């Protein structure tokens, strides 16, 4: 039997109920890894308020809004804009694009990112104490 702690969800096993996954934690901006697909983590997180401006230099970032509404500020060559994602919407932030997620009324989102990707990217503003800047936590049931 392996005595090392689990750092990601198992590749096989029982289906994962996302409602139960969300019920297992309260922390905001602190993703939980619900499964892996090849070299990618599938993460769920609760968000509310503003995150921080950050950039992922080498990977795109995929968002699926499962509940609530997510806004993503983007700093692009043509200028700054905000995309609004209502429940059921998906959006991909291209690698190298500075962005800032926010959810004034709160949201539940699913992220699809390469395993080990930091939640605050490679370059970012100062990380506030309440932001858990990790590569995701194992899901505990």
Q: What do these coordinates show?
A:
- The longest helix has 6 residues, at 18-23.
- Residues 1-11 have low confidence and may be disordered.
- The chain has one helix spanning 18-23, and strands spanning 32-37, 40-50, 54-55, 61-76, 79-86, 90-93, 98-114, 123-124, 137-138.
- It is mainly β.
Show the helix and strand layout.
Layout: H1 18-23, E1 32-37, E2 40-50, E3 54-55, E4 61-76, E5 79-86, E6 90-93, E7 98-114, E8 123-124, E9 137-138
What attributes does this structure have?
48% strand, 9 strands, single chain, 1 helix, globular, 141 residues, 4% helix
Helix and strand element order: HEEEEEEEEE
- Secondary-structure-derived class: mainly beta
Strand content: over 45%
Radius of gyration, in angstroms, nearest whole number: 15 Å
Q: Give the mean pLDDT.
A: 84
User: What is the oligomeric state here?
Assistant: single chain
Query: Low-confidence stretches at least 5 residues in length (pLDDT < 50)?
Result: 1-11
Count the strands? 9
Helix amount? under 10%
- Cα-to-Cα separation, first versus last residue: 20 Å
For the sheet with most strands, the description reads: 7 strands, mixed
What's the total helix number?
1
Mass-distribution shape: globular
């Amino acid at each position: 039997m392996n005595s090392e702690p689990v750092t990601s969800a198992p590749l096989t096993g029982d289906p994962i109920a996302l409602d139960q996954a969300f019920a297992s934690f309260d922390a905001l901006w602190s993703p939980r890894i619900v499964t892996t697909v090849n070299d990618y983590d599938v993460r769920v997180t609760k968000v509310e308020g503003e995150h921080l401006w950050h950039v992922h230099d080498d990977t795109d970032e995929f968002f699926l809004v499962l509940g609530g509404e997510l806004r993503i500020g983007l700093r692009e060559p043509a200028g700054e804009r905000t995309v609004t994602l209502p429940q059921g919407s998906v959006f991909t932030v291209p690698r190298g694009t500075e962005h800032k997620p926010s959810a004034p009324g709160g949201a539940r989102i699913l992220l699809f990112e390469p395993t080990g990707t930091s939640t605050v990217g490679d370059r970012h503003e100062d990380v506030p104490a309440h932001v858990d800047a990790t590569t995701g936590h194992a899901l505990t049931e």
